[in-house]
Structure formats: C-alpha cells, structure tokens
Design brief:
Length: 231
C-alpha cells in the first residue's frame, strides 16, 4: 500500500504524467481515510491540470485549492494567499502539483518563506518512455534542473512508466527496472510505481520492491471519458 503523508510536492518534466499521478495519489489516500488537500500550481501545461478534475475530486471530499476563479485559465504565476496558508497549516496529506520545467519549478521558489521550517517531501515523477528521461543520465539532469530552479531538494522518485492507451504489462515491468536502477544510482528511495487499473489483475506485484498506485485516468482528450471515481 502506498504510504505518503504530510506536505508532498509532485514535480516532473513535461509528459511525465505527474498531474495524473497527483490526482490518483490524492484519491488513493482519501480512500484510505486521510484528510487530503491538493493545490494546483502547474502553470506550464495549459491543458492537463489538476483543476480539470476538480469536480470529481470535490465529490470525494478532497479539497482542491486553486487560484481565484478569474485566473483559472491564466498561464501567469498567480498565487493565491490560500496556497501559502495551505502550506503553513497542512492537512494529513497536502499535495502540491507543481510544474517541473523551469517555469513551474521557479514558482515553488516563490513560496520559500512558506516552506521554511516545514518538512516537505518532493517527489520526481519519471516516465522512462518520454524524451529527456529515457536514460538515467537524463533523469539526473532533470533532477538537477528542477532543484536549481525550485531551490528545493528532491528526496524521492515515482515511477510512472506508460504509453497511455498503448501501455502493456511488459512496459510496466521494464519501467520498474529502469526506475529501480535510477533509485540505486541517485540513492533516492523509489516511493512507488504506477499501473493502469485495467492492467493490475495481470501484473505480478511481487516482482516489485515498492507499492503500486493504480491509475484511473482523469486527464483525457475531449473525445474520451474520464474514469469514474468511486469512494
């Protein structure tokens, strides 16, 4: 079982799937009985953001913290004072979905005063089937860039190996081997990996030395329907 709590910042390069991971992590922990809040600070990707799933998350009792309504579609780094307050008075799990590219990570740096003296767990989402993170060297380079821009330290890895609708069981196994090697090389713990909920019955989870987070896709193109989230 995934065991994550406290203030958790989710970062990752474009295409890593970090927002989908953040949403499903919030749902997983809420179902486990935790009080969960999630803040959307992803200002890099104008399409696939936590805010797109705010209605189903709210229906599960997950508090989604967003900038003021009139700024919801803005791509400017507009931060509501509520975000800073969220950090100062966190719930059992406070998730912050932050862009990992330079712009997104720099936004984190603007919250330095709020993060000060707080125990923060920053996790890097890695999809080895995406450009720039298809090698261990590339992942380490991405880690350094995020840490430099955010002025924070990454202290854990999330493996999110997927090819969206084309993902196979073998892709999950190979992806795990990759992030396990990355964990060994970086000396960062592998917190958990992900797998589409549809593939879980076929997967031998005993092969993994870490928990598996099931992914019920919420961020889908307009012509597809998001998975229904049940309590």
């Amino acid at each position: 079982m995934v065991q994550v709590k406290g203030i958790v910042v989710i970062v990752g390069n474009y295409g890593s799937g970090k927002t989908e991971v953040a949403i499903n992590l919030a749902v997983n922990r809420k179902r486990a009985g935790l009080d969960v809040r999630i803040a959307d600070l992803d200002l890099v990707n104008p399409y696939f953001r936590t805010r797109e799933a705010r209605k189903p998350l709210a229906e599960l009792g997950i508090d989604v913290v967003l900038p003021p309504e009139k700024y919801l579609q803005a791509d400017l780094p507009i931060l509501s004072p509520v975000i800073a307050g969220l950090i100062r008075q966190p719930s059992q799990l406070t998730l912050i979905d932050a862009g990992g590219d330079d712009v997104g990570a720099t936004v984190l740096a603007t919250l330095a005063d709020s993060f000060r003296k707080r125990r923060v767990h920053m996790l890097q989402v890695v999809n080895p089937y995406r450009p720039f993170t298809d090698t261990v060297t590339g992942c380490l380079k991405m880690r350094n860039e995020i840490e430099k821009a955010s002025k924070m330290t990454i202290n854990g890895i999330i493996g999110n190996a997927n090819l969206i609708d084309e993902t196979t069981m073998e892709d999950i196994y190979k992806g795990y081997d990759f992030v396990k090697a990355l964990s060994d090389e970086s000396r960062l713990p592998l917190e958990f990996i992900t797998a589409p909920v549809e593939l879980l019955p076929e997967i031998d989870v005993e092969r993994f030395a870490c928990p598996v987070l099931s992914i019920e896709r919420q961020l889908v193109p307009p012509w597809k329907k998001a998975a229904e989230l049940r309590k």
